[in-house]
Amino acid sequence: MAQDNKYRDDFDTDKLNNEIIRDEIKRVFKKYSHDYVSKLEELGFEYYDDEEEDIEEQEEALAKPKNPNQEYLVRCFKGDIALGDGAVAIFLEERNSSTPNYPLLRKYFKSANKNLLSIIIHGLELDPLSDELLSDLAYFHGFQNQLNLLIKYYSQACEKQPNLDAFTELAKDFYEAVILDGFNAYYALRDLFNTGTDRRKIVNFLVEVSEQEEDDAMKDLLF
């Protein structure tokens, strides 16, 4: 396996000494030449396979609608049909299908299609607790910055979620969706809920866990 594959660190490397990071990567390549991918991942780096990306691009280039729902969605994405509740329902039906046309949908996410974003936002206005649509908004954000919308709709969902277990998972998803943009969702949620409430206690615990994980990651790089 070539050593020129792409990596992206999962935490803020601006605060770290670049030379330390380079030396640590070199040490991993030298000491774990047969298993450097997993060792780098242990240090907080995410592995990307260029070959897999090429295959996805080929699939997306060839992707065509395979049923009436998908034909309808493509017309929505192209602006040929006015968006409404029906578009949201059909989009959710297709994304949750047992045989989804992922290459077709992925193509419009990657092109940051404005009508696809409108469907997602309209869906969240109808159902603020939709895990699927929140996840899709986060995925869309990967191709076009939607940080303000992520903060708005995840915060809204956290306020409205009545189940504490579900709230915990939602807060974690919120954190993961925006942390690479330099926004700490746990700190924002801590300010959102009053001291002594169950939600504030959960957020305080999540803050402690995340700070400990960050300290551990720093130690792994420095020593």
Multimerization status = single chain
Biggest β-sheet strands, sense, barrel: 2 strands, antiparallel
Sketch the topology as an H/E string, one letter per element: EHHEHHHHHHHHHH
Mean pLDDT equals 82
Identify low-pLDDT runs: 1-17
Structural class assignment: mainly alpha
Fraction of helical residues: 55-70%
Through-space gap between termini? 27 Å
The coarse overall form would be globular
- The overall strand count is 2
Tell me the number of helical segments per DSSP (H or I, 4 or more residues long).
Answer: 12
Beta fraction of the residues?
A: under 5%
Reading side by side through the largest sheet, how are the strands ordered?
A: 1-2
Number of domains: 3
Task: Write down the Rg.
Answer: 20 Å
Write a short abstract of this structure.
The chain is built from twelve helices and two strands, in the order βααβαααααααααα.
What would you say this structure looks like, in words?
With 223 residues, this protein is mainly alpha-helical. The chain folds into 3 domains: 43 residues; 81 residues, no CATH class; 75 residues, no CATH class. The protein contains 12 helices and 2 strands, in the order βααβαααααααααα. Strands 1-2 form a two-stranded antiparallel sheet. 18% of the residues are buried.
Can you give keywords for this protein?
223 residues; mainly alpha; two-stranded antiparallel ribbon; 12 helices; disordered N terminus
What's the SSE blueprint?
Layout: E1 6-9, H1 18-31, H2 36-42, E2 45-48, H3 50-62, H4 68-77, H5 85-95, H6 102-110, H7 114-126, H8 131-141, H9 147-160, H10 164-178, H11 185-192, H12 198-222
Antiparallel strand pairs: 1-2
Helix pairs in contact: 3-6, 4-5, 5-7, 7-8, 8-9, 8-10, 9-10, 10-12, 11-12
